[in-house]
Amino acid sequence: MTAHESAAPATRSLISDQELARPGYRAAYFTVLSLTTVLFAAAFLFPLYWMASSALETPREFAAQTPTLVPKSVHLTAYHDAWTQMDIAHFFLNTVWYAAGGWLIQISVDVCAAYALSKLRPVFGKAVFAGMLASLMLPSAALLVPAYLTVSDLPLLHLNLLNTPWALWLPGAANAFNIYVLRRFFDQIPGELLDAAAIDGASRLQTLLRVVLPLSRPVLAVISIFAVVGMWKDFLWPLLVLQDPGKQTLSVALHRLSTSTTQVPPTEMIAGLSIAAVPMIVLFLFFQRHILGGLSAGALKG
């Protein structure tokens, strides 16, 4: 055995290489692995397929007692009507605006908070960080009433933020989980880099913008995905603070239309749900590697 082979790290799995080398073990292992993968994939993908294909059916075919896995005939009318008659385009743009603004504010606040707790070491910083982590133990439903009272009458300024984007942006600005992930990453950045930037005359803000943030692209990508997905799929909070139909998000508007007196065909409603799901599916497919890569970045010192 060469020195290179002896230095190569061993592959870790539930079943060792010696057991896989036994007759029949390898075939059984890959059979179980394949079946498990197929079952999990079907459990996640079949609801998406059923939703997208049901919107291609006619209302009569959709209401039939015997469901069909494959539509007998393909009709794109439901998607067109959902986009035009249900005004999905308007609510879609509303949601994009809320998600973009929420992402920008959340990233700005969380990065500054994590950088301060990690590198600036303020007085009572550990107590503040512990309080943030403790807030993760609270159920989100327990915070609805205090948050609603706050945005309906903003302390000191006495402003009513209901039916405004700030009612969505401000409560989610300081996200404890994002701050925790960012702080762990910032802790792994060597202090020598920051000291070198300070010697070159960079201020703390310049050090953050020109040194820390370029090194933090993997974790920033993960935080960005979490922020956008969280704003896009949120339902209960927008339902409470956005009572004006013209300012509602896509999920809230679809719920309102489904319970309104105006009869909406079921295939048209499902088409609206499919349109609402497409952006997050595309976002996941494009950035799925960044999720695990960004969370694991900085976990080990190197």
From TrEMBL:
Transmembrane segment boundaries: 27-50, 96-117, 129-151, 166-186, 207-232, 269-287
Domain ABC transmembrane type-1 stretches: 92-286
InterPro entries: MetI-like, MetI-like_sf
Superkingdom: Bacteria
SUPFAM superfamilies linked to this entry: MetI-like (SSF161098)
Keyword set includes Membrane: yes
Membrane topology according to the record: Multi-pass membrane protein
Record-level GO BP terms: transmembrane transport
UniProt keyword Transmembrane helix present: yes
UniProt main location, coarse: membrane
A GO-annotated cellular component: plasma membrane
Keywords: Cell membrane, Membrane, Transmembrane, Transmembrane helix, Transport
Compartments (UniProt record): Cell membrane
Family the UniProt entry places it in: Belongs to the binding-protein-dependent transport system permease family.
Name by which UniProt lists this protein: Carbohydrate ABC transporter membrane protein 2, CUT1 family
